[in-house]
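$ fold --in a.seq
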Amino acid sequence: MRAPAKSGGVTINAVAGTRVVFLGLDLTASKREGCLGFAIQRHDSVTGETMWLRGKKTFAATDPGAGPGGNVPTCYHPVQGFWWADYDVAPGRAYTYTVVPRYGTPATLTSGASASTTVTTEVEDDTHSIFFNRGAVASQEYAHDFDNRPPKKLSGDLQQAAYRYLSHGLHEALLAFIARAKDGDWSLHGAVYEFNWPDVLHALGAARGRGAEVKIVYDAIPGKRAPVSFTGPAIEEAGIADLCIPRSTGKIMHNKFFVLSRKGKPVAVWTGSTNISENGIFGHLNVGHSVEDATIAHAYMDDWTDLSGNPSTKATKDWVMANDDPDKPWTAPVTTVFSPHRGDAVLGRYATIAGSAKQALCMTLAFGMNDLFKEVYGRRDGTLRMALMEDYGSGRSKKVDTGKIKALQRASNVVISIGNHVPINGFDEWVAESSGLTANVQWVHTKFMLVDPLSKTPTVITGSANFSPDSVDTNDENMLVIQGNQRVADIYFTEYMRLFAHYGFREAVAIAIAKHEPWHPGHLKETWQEWGPPFFDQNDDRNTRRRYFATGKVH
């Protein structure tokens, strides 16, 4: 949901997902001089609570000394930026936000004219039900609440609390999806890559125990990175070997989907980027996306049927090309795209869609940025382009790719954030962090693209496939192309901004450490001239972001 408002020279553009409300702000020229930032107040329509949102940065002169991990109310230490997000919201609830410019001095702050808006967060259960995990195990909150220890090194209630924190609802939603197979009228058919998290495997066994039909195709393709060494023992431990079908041909069976059927008719599908593993569900950034649509579910069931026969790569390509013509226009509200195709025409189509963004493009990239997308991000046309990446690149080309990505980062319309964590103690109110969970990917594992997400006709592309040649020409993959659905775009956009802010800061810390520079984020500035002008500088990416977040447009 979007709820823009203007009053007293203040602009608010509130965008609500399910568990995040993002606020884009602006201030007219006559109100800027002397402004020391924004105080933000929230009223909860259910609890009746009204509170000032809190941040970490303080004025030096009035620093209360909150200590590591502490935070302070924005009425005394205002937000010196033109966007902010509230991560402590519940789905399906109305919140009123009041934004108040603050003037004067740190010790004697005064308020200017304010603006208010009321926005309702999206419900989680709908035609499209979307669940992001925390994606930020390297966080100050986790470090403090769980002593920076991996969940498996905790015990009892504390361990369960750690998993709930990291899951952020994703784990619970997946188990609830499986639990819908409640008797013999129902069936579940899954195609999975990593498949070893006991809770999910036992839940599938329990569904079988209720009389439901359960069949799982899993990646058992030999090779250095094959997950089968973990999958086999987990399947045996859960007692579901008779439900599982090994896929032993091809290169990578990279799907992560489950089709739910009733009386033999597909009714819903769970898909997304989440592997059925500890790190997939609780560690690096992932999304689970279920669709209550018989047509979409039927398409996935057809793909499952093909995979269950353990076809060769050639045979799979024959099936995909016969059922998923890459030249057919993607005009439906939701289009399914399966892989492997012959050649990389689909990748070219993704790049064309990315390049069609008129106002903004947002992507997540787990294994570097393909040259087709580097060309799009290299355009100097004023369109805001953001990328959240696991790393600058991977493999033999990483050094070259790092240079190219850093060159892209210098543009005023491009903002690229790289996953990282705070590795040191001792600056301001921050403490060292550790991911706690490690795997081939530590931070960013999602694979989605948002084209003009704040427009009336956004496009969301999401699923299991990295935007790479292998993901369209070699691997077993699936993607959804969702067009014109503002609710879906708002959920993805708000979660994207949550993680972008999280890792953007940590990247700055990492860069400073790599240069052997002392890192100190500093206190809030005491004059407008010290913090405000870059947000209105045509050569600064902060200006591009301010305009887009406040209005949904840069042109």
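$ fold --in b.seq
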Amino acid sequence: MAKQPDNIPDFKGYNGNVNIKKIGVEVQWTPELLLEYAKCEKDAEYFVETYMKIVHVDHGLIPFILRDYQKEMLRSMIEQRRTVVVSARQIGKSTVFSAFVLWSLIFNSDITIGLLANKAEVAREILGRIQLAYEHLPKWLQQGVIKWNESTLELENNSRCIASSTTASAVRGYSLNTLIIDEAAHIDNWDEFFTSVFPTISSGETTKIILVSTPCGLNHFYKICTEAENKLNGYSFIKVMWDRVPGRDEKWKQDILAGLNFDVAKFEQEFECAFAGSSGTLINGAKLRAMAHKKPLYESSNIKQYFKPEKNGVYVCTVDVSRGKGLDYSAFTIFDVTKMPYEQVCAFHDNYIVPMDFADIVHKLCKTYNNAWIMVELNDLGQQVSDILYFTHEYEFMFSTESAGRAGKRVTAGYSKNTQRGMTTTKITKNRGCSMLKLLIENDSMHIHDFDTIAELHTFSRKNASYEAEAGKHDDLVMCLVIFAWLSDEQYFKDLVNINTIEEIRERKEEDISDDLMPFGFVDFGDELEELIEPSLRIRFWPLG
């Protein structure tokens, strides 16, 4: 439509800037202007495409014409309380929520919008785009400006936008109506940060949170996106890949790949919204990508329960103990072993809990699950937890182990001076446990439902002749799986649950399992295992290193 007149006589700008209206300036409203203002207030897309200007890298200052996916994003930001957008790079996502903020500030009174990014300069740059667009609005659309600097835009209708980094204290003390977080996947201190800022938006009934980012591994953002995609957490989910941008075709893709030295994994993460894990993981990458976590039936104090105890169910709990000083985690996981596939029914991990309290929680949960059998890893403070369970809680359903020569350890009945209540993890037992864990998961004979456990599997990678967590990551929950996998191939376990793990896998999937086990070298399982596997599947194993 034709440009509307400003209808402001003797206009004087904010701090001498004639492009910005200062407070208290009167507009001479006409019926035409009033109708146009009402139309902009009612229809954000019309307002943006008619009056918002952006700077194009090739064409300079131009009107902002929304693409289809940008309209989808804008509508979700306006209509939904929670929106999460996972996007390719350079799709104009920042410009969309600049448009949303601009429209919201002008047509709503008494609101505060927090605009946060993983770096303060990124948040300020986005606010700069909003301010540039504001300068090029007709004066009759502008509110008078109270505050205008690199981190704050405040208008005379008492609405404001605050730009900051994603530190725990970023918006402490503010009551936010809308929280926008750019590059949400790249926030390292997410738990601390979100615990601090979430109360700023949780008190209202119309408050909004908007998360936008490219992927960055299987972290908090991955969890939010997968739960949103499966409609589990109340977020409106939007995914924008590279090919939704006009002009991006196969030739464009090949040019970008060439610029990335044909690093396909990098392209998939940056432009195809792939939440890629690490390379060299114990579990096959395709299998890891197919693993989906469940929403817990119950979650409290780091306890997550995925299935209720069944009356006649048989359960096994494996326990990994740390010192409770904020470093490694004390963890346990409980499996339903009544039948295969084995189901993870409960998980716990905490990096501050002390051994006494940890033993109390293990005891309580295992009693709940029909007196689940417990295998405690005795390394470090594990012996203390084992003793508390047995002597303090008088818990009898505990596995014991004894030396088995070249095979490392074996599970045995009863307790004597030659046995331990629990197991000491050695190179031999860990290699064998990793081998069995790979076999169980990749043959769909073990179902993992816990998000944190799955996330640890994505960074449980090869190092020298073994597997462990990558630098800066943890593997305490995975080690509970490794202990369970090792246990599942022990004769005592087979007799207890009446399941021969390898035979069950062979029957479920009639193919040679040797390829799955070969990466771990060789471990001698003894003649007993040889007799349980038909000749075509037999393989000898020997400890690495």
